[in-house]
């Protein structure tokens, strides 16, 4: 199953985003459900390669993009990391997908802090009618994260060497969160309420993700039986899903159950993964 | 909120081994319990599914009922590496073979190991595990400069293949094309990417070849603290003369400005399904799914820790063949390490002296020299 990967440069309002889209060559002219996968904190599109391969092979078009100023295979400068910027970038990518893919079946898989951004975006904009909002190891309660991380979110969450004292301006990050209403529980509750029926969470109990705590956030909702999609609490599952076929398969099956009922999952095989990885690298490396 | 409780995604072995909390912090009891469960499970699988292995066990008077508890692990029959040069040992149907993996084949003696999806996945996970646990390198944590070929050119040759699959977990760049190391490209790439954490990977002969290029052209590199020079593939040159690690480190410091703690080795052989990584204290740390038993060269009795003997392996990560090996290497097993990680560490001392038992590095070295000539 050959995949067509395309490097896309999305430019708007002085913002430039490098994205990689992928779909099966055999479906080149079909309109497929689209899944947007923004890179999580401190990660790149490469992290999501295996997951995207699973999804593409099972009938989805996948758009992945990186954080700020990225060329798709490198990390980005963390000192520019602000949730408002991430939200703006998601909006630009979403609109780009709407324009180019001609579908309203646009879902998202967002991990760690990006999950909070996705909840705000899909919640506020009500763009969730035909969407699945899938949160992977989410960090929803930014205020709690800030409290736990003791002013060093980047050290706590990411894979970032914080020995460079200039790498992150904590105060500005918090101010940005406050200004854009990322910190209050009321806002989070309201946004979750808006996307509740289409929400999927793959999570593991962690210091900043307590299942009980999250359950309380959902207390306003009593009609559990009407849930369309399941929530999963994972045991022994790290964020390293770039080599975790089993988790990729579970996430793919979940999306298939929503868009392609009764279809069997196709699991990419090792040699095919190697081949496609090389193909993507050759066709999508941006030369700046 | 409806949350399904503790969903285990994937087989238990994979979840516990590769997805759980740091297993290099486990205490002895945890490691013992793990090994008792998973190594015995692996033994039962191979005994039941490999006719060759079952016969081998029967010849050793070992049946399924003889291996039940941890104390029985030392009795699990281990296949001499040389056997893989003469017969195919399989625990799966041939139709499930994904990759035939071969050793260097120096002097025409080639080991054939057949791997299926599960076994290859676990191999990759062992690499990912080692990079993360030993070097704190996560997926995009560094850029790999591989002095070897890409996957296609590596074909079945094990060492080249294993380094080439790093592409899947890291941003890797390969610098051997048609058997020839692209020295100028390596030099330029390292210089142009000095802002990134670099992992320079190669067999010692290839790194020495690259140093000769630097010498000949009056060049030196300036690696920064945190960069890693990673050797693997064996320490003998084509001449069979051992390259002393101290001498090698001095060259790395002189020509790469490499930090001593960043000059590290890794061990693997085609028959083993795990790459064993070295920490910055130069200890090769064994993950719990690999149990090393050091055996007396004459009696094959387990001689325990701190004594020189033949290294033998029980690697529970293989599904397609019994990865229970009696190797050609002499070494010492030690407990714990000053780096703070728990568990066993292994020190390879030298090969058992046999003409046919030379390493993959020799093949690469001699191939390279042939090209150069």
Oligomer: heterodimer
Euclidean distance between termini CA atoms of chain B: 70 Å
Structural class assignment of chain A: alpha/beta
Radius of gyration of chain A: 18 Å
| Mean pLDDT rating of chain A | 79
Q: In one word, what is the shape of chain B?
A: globular
Number of helices of chain A: 10
Coarse morphology of chain A: globular
Mean pLDDT of chain B: 86
Q: Strand fraction band of chain B?
A: 15-25%
Please give a structural write-up.
The complex is a heterodimer of chains A (288) and B (373). In chain A, 39% of the residues lie in helices and 18% in strands. Chain A has helices spanning 49-57, 83-101, 113-125, 142-149, 153-157, 170-179, 185-195, 211-217, 245-259, 270-284; strands spanning 3-12, 15-24, 34-38, 61-65, 106-112, 133-138, 199-203, 232-235. Chain A has an 8-stranded mixed beta sheet, with helices on both faces. The longest helix of chain A has 19 residues, at 83-101. Chain B has 10 helices and 17 strands. Chain B has helices at residues 12-18, 28-49, 51-59, 117-135, 151-154, 158-164, 183-192, 204-216, 245-256, 360-372; strands spanning 4-8, 79-80, 99-102, 112-115, 143-146, 171-174, 176-177, 180-181, 198-202, 228-231, 263-267, 276-277, 284-285, 290-295, 309-315, 324-335, 344-351. In chain B, strand 16 and strand 17 form a beta hairpin. The longest helix of chain B is centred in the first third of the chain and has 22 residues, at 28-49. Chain B is globular and about 65 Å long. Chain A binds chain B through residues 42-44, 46-47, 49-50, 73-75, 159, 201, 211, 214-215, 217-218, 221, 224, 227, 230-238, 240, 242-247, 250, 269-271, 273-274, 277-278, 281, and chain B through 1-11, 14-16, 18-20, 98-99, 117, 120-121, 124-125, 128, 132, 138-141, 150-152, 165, 167-169, 171, 196. Strand 8 of chain A pairs parallel with strand 1 (4-8) of chain B, so a sheet runs across the interface.
């Amino acid at each position: 199953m050959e995949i067509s990967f395309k490097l896309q440069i999305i430019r708007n309002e002085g913002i430039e985003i490098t994205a990689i889209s992928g779909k099966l060559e055999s479906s080149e002219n079909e309109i497929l459900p689209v899944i947007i996968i923004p890179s999580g904190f401190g990660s790149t599109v490469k992290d999501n390669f295996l997951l995207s391969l699973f999804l593409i092979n099972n009938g989805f078009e996948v758009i992945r993009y990186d954080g700020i100023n990225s060329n798709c295979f490198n990390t980005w400068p963390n000192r520019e990391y602000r949730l408002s910027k991430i939200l703006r970038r998601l909006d630009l990518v979403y609109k780009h997908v709407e324009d180019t893919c001609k579908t309203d079946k646009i879902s998202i898989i967002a991990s760690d802090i990006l999950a909070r951004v996705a909840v705000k975006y899909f919640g506020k904009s009500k763009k969730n009618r035909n969407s699945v909002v899938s949160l992977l190891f989410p960090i929803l309660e930014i205020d709690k994260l800030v409290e736990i991380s003791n002013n060093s979110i980047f050290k706590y969450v990411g894979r970032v060497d914080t020995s460079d004292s200039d790498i992150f301006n904590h105060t500005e990050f918090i101010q940005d969160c406050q200004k854009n209403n990322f910190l209050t529980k009321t806002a989070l509750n309201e946004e979750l309420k808006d996307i509740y029926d289409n929400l999927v969470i793959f999570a593991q109990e962690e210091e900043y993700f307590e299942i009980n705590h999250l359950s309380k956030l959902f207390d306003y909702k009593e009609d559990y039986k009407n849930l369309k999609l399941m929530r999963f609490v994972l045991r022994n599952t790290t964020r390293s899903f770039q080599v975790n076929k089993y988790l990729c398969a579970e996430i793919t099956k979940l999306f298939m159950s929503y868009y392609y009922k009764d279809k069997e999952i196709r699991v990419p095989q090792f040699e095919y993964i190697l081949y496609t990885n090389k193909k993507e690298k050759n066709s999508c490396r941006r030369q700046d | 909120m409806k949350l399904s409780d503790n969903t285990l995604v994937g087989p238990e072995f994979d979840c516990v081994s590769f997805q759980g909390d740091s297993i290099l912090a486990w205490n002895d009891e945890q490691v013992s319990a793990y090994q008792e469960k998973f190594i015995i499970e692996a033994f039962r699988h191979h005994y039941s599914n490999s006719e060759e292995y079952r016969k081998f066990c029967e010849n050793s008077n070992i049946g399924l009922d003889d291996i039940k508890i941890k104390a029985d692990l030392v009795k699990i029959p281990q296949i001499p590496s040389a056997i893989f040069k003469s017969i195919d040992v399989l625990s799966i149907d041939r139709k499930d073979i994904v990759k035939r993996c071969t050793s260097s084949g120096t002097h025409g003696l080639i080991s054939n190991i057949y791997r299926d999806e599960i076994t290859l996945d676990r191999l990759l996970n062992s690499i990912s595990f080692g990079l993360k646990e030993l070097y704190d390198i996560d997926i995009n944590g560094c850029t790999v400069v591989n002095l070897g070929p890409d996957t296609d050119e590596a074909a079945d040759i094990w060492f080249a293949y294993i380094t080439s699959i790093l592409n899947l977990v890291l941003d890797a760049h390969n610098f051997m094309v048609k058997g020839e190391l692209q020295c100028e490209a390596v030099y330029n790439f390292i210089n142009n990417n000095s802002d990134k954490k670099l992992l320079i990977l190669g067999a010692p002969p290839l790194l020495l070849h690259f140093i000769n290029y630097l010498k000949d052209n009056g060049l030196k590199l300036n690696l920064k603290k945190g960069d890693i020079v990673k050797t693997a593939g064996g320490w003998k040159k084509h001449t069979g003369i051992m390259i002393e690690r101290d001498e090698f480190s001095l060259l790395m410091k002189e020509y790469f400005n490499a930090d001593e703690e960043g000059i590290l080795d890794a061990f693997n052989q085609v028959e083993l399904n795990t790459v064993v990584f070295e920490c910055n204290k130069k200890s090769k740390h064994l993950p719990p799914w690999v149990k090393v038993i050091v055996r007396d060269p004459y009696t094959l009795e387990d001689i325990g820790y701190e004594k020189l003997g033949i290294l033998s392996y029980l690697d529970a990560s293989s599904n397609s063949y019994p990865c229970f090996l009696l190797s050609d290497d002499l070494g010492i097993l030690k407990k714990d390490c000053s780096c703070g990680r728990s568990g066993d560490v292994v020190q390879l001392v030298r090969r058992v002296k046999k003409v046919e038992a030379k390493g993959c590095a020799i093949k690469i070295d001699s191939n390279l020299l042939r090209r150069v000539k």
